Write the structure tokens for this entry.
Amino acid sequence: MRVPFGEVQEVLRSVLLTRGCPEDLAEQVAREMATNSLEGVYSHGVNRFYWLIRNIDRGWVNVQGRPVLVERFAALERYDGQMGLGVPNALFCMDRAVELAREYGIGLVALRNTNHWMRAATYGLRACAQGLAAICFTNTFPNMPAWGGADPRLGNNPLMLAFPGPEGPVVVDMAMSQFSYGALELAKLDGRQMPLPAGYDEQGELTTDPEQVLKTMRILPMGYWKGSALALLLDLFAAAFSAGNSTAMIGRKYGGDAAVSQVFIAIDYTRIVPPDRAGEIAQEILADLLASEPLEEGGRVVYPGQRRRAVREENLRLGIPVHERVWRKILSLGG
Amino acid sequence: MRVPFGEVQEVLRSVLLTRGCPEDLAEQVAREMATNSLEGVYSHGVNRFYWLIRNIDRGWVNVQGRPVLVERFAALERYDGQMGLGVPNALFCMDRAVELAREYGIGLVALRNTNHWMRAATYGLRACAQGLAAICFTNTFPNMPAWGGADPRLGNNPLMLAFPGPEGPVVVDMAMSQFSYGALELAKLDGRQMPLPAGYDEQGELTTDPEQVLKTMRILPMGYWKGSALALLLDLFAAAFSAGNSTAMIGRKYGGDAAVSQVFIAIDYTRIVPPDRAGEIAQEILADLLASEPLEEGGRVVYPGQRRRAVREENLRLGIPVHERVWRKILSLGG
């Protein structure tokens, strides 16, 4: 079924209000989660909302929490997220990083005790809208074995890089696992297999079955040892810069995604490069990529973020595709 | 055969001097390239030296070139590398980023018109030795097809993250291809197949044969679409921040690795986090990782950089393993 964007947003907002969420925060969460589905990132939009409310109801999320400054030094700031809603906390910190970058050329904000930010690209798009490039990452609870390991010790710690390209933001938003858990959940809902092995089943064999991997949590790191190593470094950075929980600590304290640590870096590169020159360079890079000879006949190479606008327009026109079962569950939350 | 570290360093230095290289730069290049082999990164040490001298001899490297400041704004600086030697240029820029980070908490230096920096980890180790974390990346000439593409349009743009861990630096240094070209060349020298498909052969089939992939340059991105997307963003960042060459421009102008663009970010996180606390967090993260249940009996999970010291000590004691053919070629360069 398809539900109009405005209706999705309004339903999410009203459910959040029943949980004691302040108006402004409910507005932000509803807008961003509805936007994620609108732009085709179904795994981190409407499909994640029931999970968010469950985390609020079990006391993992403090809907009144807002970031509190703990420490600052020039272009660095460190906040405690007060266990608040992940989306408003992250929007706040990205905006602070942008302000620091306006002043110092680059700004870094570290945030601890926050919750799932949903879609990493949200914060890159936010920085790009202000003309800045961004690098953000978060840790998660232990949901991925290290390379050579059998038990989940690493998070699949998403990493996001965004650049304000000549025809809209170019954004890479990637979990350190070959597939994100959101993508596995979506495939399970759709009854699809993954196109490549996603992890190990209970017999220790590689499998493309999302349900098996969701059960074992023995997901494959992207690029094998590479995703494993990068996930470790992102955890070290996020936990140490924020003096917050590491993946291991989150696992021990919660056994799920809560009280995570995040880092937001904004770069106002136009302070050292004429914006026109940077734009020309980006234009040329993207044009060259798009001129790729396709591997398969009739295929086409696209850049990350390129299809966002088209999907957005289609879903605005036709409504957001929502699984009926998911939507019924959300309506049952009261709002 | 094995050659003592001091002898390797001295031979490289004396060859560089015959090419008109100033004493201090020859010293830096010889030290770092010998150290790369010493620490087991054979692909970017002695094995790359003949290639470097060839690039000097064909006029791609200006051995007298040193970075010139083009633009600065607070914590950002932009340099032109004057087509100089990649290693000294990159050491200089990493040191500048560290100095900026001392002043602003974080510093970013963008460098254009420089040459291959050899081993990305070199610069992370340099920042870690001063107690700072670092993120560095470089673009390269087009040597990897984009995901879904058949012709090389992207660089395999190495990315490096380093954190000064409690028992020495933890460093991830990874090309955006599943295997670096250095690793392919080394396997070819050793007559080994790669452990996983590395790219496509001339028939368009996936292959583990390094020689085939070196021929077609149709190397697989790490994590398929993920490495492809990340490589694109690193190129956008490196070329736009430095107002330098993009991968496509390098390909058009040189058809090989020359006049590349690089970015160096240093983070003095101890300005906002007590160093003891950060150290405890890192200690706990690494201990938890090392406690992984091994996937294979008798296996062991290690963290990136963990084996560096042991390899270094062994090679200091026994000499650096060098292919006789490679060593003879270097000796033939005159020095």
About this structure: DSSP finds twelve helices and 13 strands in chain B. Chain B has two domains: 2-177+221-271, 178-220.
